[in-house]
Predict the 3D structure of the following.
Amino acid sequence: MQALVLVGGFGTRLRPLTYHVPKAMVPIVNVPFIERFVDYLEANGITHIVFAMGYLPDPIANHLSKRNGKAKYDFVVEDQPLDTGGAIKNAEPLLGERFFVFNGDVLTTIPLREILRVHEERNALLTIALTPVDDPSRYGVVVTDSDGRVQAFIEKPPKETAPSNLINAGIYLYEREVLNHIPTGQPYSVERGLYPKLLEIGAPFYAVAFPNDYWLDIGKVEHYLQANFDVLSRKAPLPIPGKEIRQGVWVGEGVQIAPTAKLQPPVLIGDGCVVEDGAVIGPFAVLGEGVIVKQNAVVQDAVLWDGCVIGENANVSRCVLGSRCEVGEGVKVEPDRAYGCNERIETGVAA
Ligand code: GDD
Ligand code: MG
């Protein structure tokens, strides 16, 4: 079975991290998102993956070209942002009679064979996976009848007006014929254009809900942190790179951890990290490769990319630090935000 993965967006809500790193390459517990995503597709029987790219395509293509996977990979690069529908239409020459389409920023375990089963049973033109969320206003809200046939698709409805908490999970099964309804060579949104149009013409458009499977769109700082913590705490059943030295404490190769440092689970200390005396790491902390945490510093509810250096007595909580950030001695980093790569953080909030 074939899959088309949309990875061309700007990743606006993950800025400044995505100024230099495409959203598909951000690490989730020290493994690039796209690596975990391709693992998921291959485990679900996908044998050919087309990547629809736009913004920063090279890091994704370079990474995948080194992967020794089971599937065949193809890359299509847009010369202008075409939005979701335009990106799908642009990949048409590489697509077959039936294929899955994915938003390339969703960490999930939704089983694809169940979507295929419903699609075939209903003789659908298009079948879409749904997931329940607390605040549907940020997503595409979907209403179905008791048979699973889609009645309404409302992209990002104003808060409190959403008719359901079931939303578009960004996973679809398309019959090729659907592509005839998308205009060529121009930006076009499937969510605001194609799906309402298919409903208008009465096309067999079905949905299937997955309330029990893990699902999270990683495209916002708060959710990016959550995705990391869900993998770390095993709420999302995905591999953690490293060795579990005691329950919930994972360490990579060649780490140096001082005897008076405290590792509070769940926590991952990446390869080559140094944690000095009196430092407190976790609960909920991911350290990339070669991170140095100096004496008595605290890192909690945080994700630190490779090569960060945290000064003595500093406090890094509820935030993401891009690669090689340096936090000054005693600085309490501003929470609930991301810092871009190579930042020197010398002023923080009051301790
Ligand atoms: N190739 C390409 N070209 N990909 C694009 C483009 C483009 O011009 N624009 C966006 N994408 C990709 C993004 O990289 C992302 O993987 C996917 O399309 C969806 O874009 P987002 O910007 O992440 O959309 P969203 O999260 O606000 O909303 C979408 O996802 C929700 C589920 O997470 C919609 O599909 C909602 O209906 C859905 O509920
Ligand atoms: Mg998204």
About this structure: The longest strand covers residues 166-175.
